[in-house]
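note to self: dont lose this again. the chain is below, predicted strucutre after it. 394 aa total, dont forget to put it in the shared folder this time
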Amino acid sequence: MKRLILPIAVLVAMSATNANAQNARIFAITGETQGNVNWNAVREINGTNGAVKTTLYSPSAKQSINYQSYKNRNVAPTAEPAVSAIAAAAYDAKNNRLYYTNMRGTTLNYVDLNEDNLTVVSNDDAIFNTGDKFKTEASIITRMTFGADGAGYALTNDGEHLVKFTTESHATISDLGRLIDGANNGTNSIHNNLSSWGGDMVGDAFGNLYVVTMHSAVYKVNTHTLVADYVGTIKGLPTEFTTNGAAVNEDGDLVVSSAIYTASYFKVDISTLQVLGAVKSATGVYNASDLASANLLYQSKVAATSSSSIADKVSIYPNPAVGKNFQLKVSGNAGSRYLVEITDARGKVVLQNTTNSNSTLRVILPKAIASGIYNVKVTNDANKAVYSDKLIVE
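---
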């Protein structure tokens, strides 16, 4: 049998196309019918009009579920790993998995979307536990997403537990601890049960998380310092709309859903927190307890500045930078000089330096800068940018 060998360029293009298709997916946790609040159906929706593209699971379809554990043992179909009573879910595009936890459960589960039959895998190596969820709603996990670092994050109602989890075969689950209110939050607290519980969470391209609460308040969370800065409240939503789900569409806009509102979802500009318009089909939408996508806020801005020329090749090692030190080398025409500029997420310059072609520059970042995602820009002596990309500082 003759094997078909595809050119590298074709394989890369196919891989990129597949990755883009995965990132475009948005999932909703809904009830069986519009208005139902059992949160036991999983649907993939269209990010443009909110229409259902496919229903992955619905109890009335009487689908059999293949339950497995991380250790590849079959587990009994108990209430916990079952697809029911879900208020927090996150989509992992890299592995094509929809992660979730049950409201009263203590395990982290995922639906393996690579399988033809509905397969739910439960993590029995580590307890996804944040307190007695049957006695109080405070310890229930209601927000979950994946960050720019590829890790998953989950947050309890009361903001006392930000939990980080990984997706490899020996996955780890770490309770990072209690969120801290930002210095300028005033009377707005991430821990306030009247204004800041419930809702959902999304990531941005700079490594931050954005918590959108049930009452549409928005907090920006630094995953390293655990500081939650109050950003504001979404403007333009209907009075009866409670914000329960949040995802990011292909354009980088925030899309929010309600657990009780079936007329539409809404698209929101994260920079202004202004509603841009309704996301709805002719028959409305399914009210949803949670939305999940792999897109990140501001990802288009990062992608637009990520480039390098053929003439000048730039390499950075290590990235992530360890101990705020890294090495940078530009391979170019002999005798050329380059300006190296490092900026933070707001565009503020934190360091400038120069280097010659074909030499290695050791960069030592200021001790005062916080961990996070920065941008490295290299400009040649003709004042032309030859490189611009992200640098992760641990």
